[in-house]
Amino acid sequence: MTLFEKIAARQVPADIVFEDEHTVAFRDLHAVAPTHVLVVPRRALPKLSDATEADAELLGRCLLTASKVAAQLGLDEAGYRVVINTGADAGQTVFHLHLHILGGRALTWPPG
Ligand code: AMP
């Protein structure tokens, strides 16, 4: 099992802020913004570049959960960023697809 599957199954502790049948959202252990939450599908997909047509619904559900969680955490008015690091050059470290929700401060562009 991946680390994030274990968090989704509550075998590894995490600060879970939202969960439904398909997705789980929890606070990042090393937050880089005042609000930094990860959204993961319960079903592991290593990275975005592995996604196929069969994953279309899962990907959509992850985005909808990100939108719900951002609203729940009060980020809607000021705005927020959703990031998917994919592969080595993007700095992906956990190979279970996850969306970073970053908010609570003005974010710069382009990212580093
Ligand atoms: P990435 O670099 O996109 O693969 O991001 C992985 C993220 O997972 C990093 O921001 C880590 O801080 C975060 N992370 C790693 N282990 C945990 C954990 N046990 N609980 C919460 N977040 C974690």
Question: Which helices and strands occur, and which strands form pairs?
Answer:
Elements: H1 3-8, E1 16-19, E2 23-27, E3 35-41, H2 56-72, E4 80-83, E5 99-103
Antiparallel strand pairs: 1-2, 2-3, 3-5, 4-5
The structure holds adenosine monophosphate.
Shape: globular
Strand order in space, largest sheet: 1-2-3-5-4
Strand content: 15-25%
Report the count of strand segments.
Answer: 5
CATH class: Alpha Beta
| CATH architecture verdict | 2-Layer Sandwich
**Annotated CATH homologous superfamily:** HIT-like
User: What's the total helix number?
Assistant: 2
- The share of residues in helices is 10-25%
End-to-end gap:
31 Å
Which series of helices and strands comes N to C? HEEEHEE
The helix/strand class is alpha+beta
Oligomer class: single chain
Question: What integer value in Å does the Rg equal?
Answer: 13 Å
User: Unreliable segments (pLDDT under 50, ≥5 consecutive)?
Assistant: none
